[in-house]
Amino acid sequence: MADWDNWVTQVVQRYKGRISSYEIWNEANLKMFYNGTPAQMADMTKRAYDIIKANDPAALVVSASPSLRLQSAFDGFYVKYLAELAKLSWPIDVLAMHTYPKADGDPVARGALITMAKKAITAAGAPATIPVWDTELNYGLAGPGALPANKIKGDKAAGWVVRTYIDNLRYGIERSYWYIWTQKPYALLGIQAYPGAPAEQGFFALENWVVGSSFEGCTQTGDTVVCNFTRAGQKSVVAWAETGTAAYTAPEGSTLLCDPSAKCSQVAGGTQITLTEIPVRIYLQS
Hints:
about 35% helix; Glycosyl_Hydrolase_39; hydrolase activity, hydrolyzing O-glycosyl compounds
C-alpha cells in the first residue's frame, strides 16, 4: 500500500485548503472501476483518512461510492465494505452512493434504491451522525444489460429535477451532485442540463421553491405526495403524483398554483386538482 499512501499524501498536500472533500473511490462495486476486495478498500479508506486528517484536518473524507442500480454488485461488495468499515471504527466523515436507477427508472425507483442502501447502512451499525451524500446521479442511462437509453425531455425533465432534490429531504440525503452540467447535449445522459435545457428550469424552480425555505415534512397518501415549506412567512406546498395521475384537493388558503416552468394560475382552497408526475407549488395565504 506504499504507493497508495504516497499518492494520497501528494494529493492532499498539493490541494490542502482547495479541496474540501475527498471521495475515496468511484463506484467501487463495479469491476470496471475496481477489482480488489471490500477489505482492501476499507484498508485504503482508513489509510487515506489518516493521511488526509494529518495534513488537512478540515477536509472531509467521503467513503467509496457504490452504484446502486445493480443489486448483485451492491450486495456482493458494498454490504461487505460497510462491515469492514465498522471493524475500523468508521474512518469516514460521509457515506457516498450513486443513485442512477435503471434506464427505465424514475424518481420512485431512485427512492427505492436509497431506501435499500440506507437499510444496509443501518444494519451495518453506521453512526447516525454520518451524513449520506448522493455524489452522482441522473436518469435514463442505458442498462443494465440490454435496456436502451431513455431520454427524459420537456416538462418531465424539469419536474424530475425538482422531485429529486425534494426527495433528498424526504429520504435524508444531505447532498446530491447532479451529473452533469454541460454547455451542450451529452449523449450519455437521460436528462440534459445545459443553458436553456428544460432541466435548467427545474433548478430555477428549486431556487425559488426550496432554497432558503424551512422544510416541514412530506406526507404520502397513495400516489399523492405533499411537501410543506415556509420561507419568510410564506407557506406553500409542493405536490405531485408518484406515477400517473392522482386527485388532490387544494388546501384551505390556496391562492396560486405554479409548475416548474413558472406557468401559474389562480386556485382556491377546495379546488379539485389532477396531479401528474410533474410537481406543482401551491401558495397559501399568510
